[in-house]
Amino acid sequence: MLIASAFLKQLHQGQWRHPSILLVYGEEPLYIRRVTDALRQTFKAQGFLQRDRYDVDAQFDWQGLQMETQTGSLFADQRLIELAMPTGNPGTPGSQFVLNWCKQPPQDCVLVIYCERLESRQVKAKWAQAIESAGLVVQAKPLAQPELVRWCQQEARVQQLQLDTEAAALLAERVEGNMLAAEQELMKLSLRYPAGQVISAQDIAEQVVDQAHYQLFALSSLVLMGEAKQALHVLHRLQQEGTEAPIVLWLLTKELRTLVELAQASNLNLAMKEQRIWSAKQAEYRQALSRHPLKIWHRLLIDAYQIDRQIKGLQLGDPWLGLADLLVSIAR
């Protein structure tokens, strides 16, 4: 298993030999996006001119995909197959498909499976273990605070800026660990300051206003408490102020994953402690859990994935309308 940052370094060195199957999973959407983009560029450069992407749900036709990949053509291009499986639950047919692929991969095909957060039991499942043995597993995990500070400094250099340690620490604090938000703020700073500018903590304090982030936290509380009308008002304000849709989606997806974990827990108090939900916030989660059963939280997580596809241009639709619908579905 490789963490995403180390894997990206390998790809950029240009000497990476691809396996026949890869699993990319994790909680950090920025790394997922960068790994996805880098893999597509790498495979295209290596002659994989055909790319097919499938969304995996409970009704996914694994047998059809098995038959399709087994039927090759002498004159066919090398083919990249992407499976988006946000829940990390392939079911029995999907598990068998992966096991078969690992034992005897189709010629001129590479399979990449993308998941969101996987629990330890899912990582230890036979299909995931088979991928690790026969191919490669890449984990996109969030950065701890000291690592995030260093990352902010590195990203600033990419934007032709310099952040001193104090400024980087303040930026990391303002974005609350959200790497997508940090990337957005650094891009804004690069438009405001000339190349080579040294950004101080005072610059961060003046330019990186955390009002939007406070509004994000307010949005989280309103959604959990079922205040749909007020939550829609905050969502509209965030859109008007230029907040990126992926940041709002990150927040709602994070809450949905937490609700899934709590809904399937046998001991809610213990689960909240494990999820590090402080006492003042527990009432909000209890209120949300009283509105929907586990299967609804799972379905809403799939809806969040569809919005992600809209943001990336892989599916038709307005992501802000999708976010509004998702918000109302969680709250009502």
UniProtKB/TrEMBL annotation:
<dbReference type="GO" id="GO:0003677">
    <property type="term" value="F:DNA binding"/>
</dbReference>
<dbReference type="InterPro" id="IPR010372">
    <property type="entry name" value="DNA_pol3_delta_N"/>
</dbReference>
<dbReference type="GO" id="GO:0003887">
    <property type="term" value="F:DNA-directed DNA polymerase activity"/>
</dbReference>
<keyword id="KW-0808">Transferase</keyword>
<keyword id="KW-0235">DNA replication</keyword>
<dbReference type="InterPro" id="IPR005790">
    <property type="entry name" value="DNA_polIII_delta"/>
</dbReference>
<protein>
    <recommendedName>
        <fullName>DNA polymerase III subunit delta</fullName>
        <ecNumber>2.7.7.7</ecNumber>
    </recommendedName>
</protein>
<keyword id="KW-0548">Nucleotidyltransferase</keyword>
<dbReference type="InterPro" id="IPR008921">
    <property type="entry name" value="DNA_pol3_clamp-load_cplx_C"/>
</dbReference>
<dbReference type="InterPro" id="IPR027417">
    <property type="entry name" value="P-loop_NTPase"/>
</dbReference>
<dbReference type="Pfam" id="PF06144">
    <property type="entry name" value="DNA_pol3_delta"/>
</dbReference>
<feature type="domain" description="DNA polymerase III delta N-terminal">
    <location>
        <begin position="23"/>
        <end position="140"/>
    </location>
</feature>
<dbReference type="GO" id="GO:0006261">
    <property type="term" value="P:DNA-templated DNA replication"/>
</dbReference>
<dbReference type="GO" id="GO:0009360">
    <property type="term" value="C:DNA polymerase III complex"/>
</dbReference>
<comment type="similarity">
    <text>Belongs to the DNA polymerase HolA subunit family.</text>
</comment>
<keyword id="KW-0239">DNA-directed DNA polymerase</keyword>
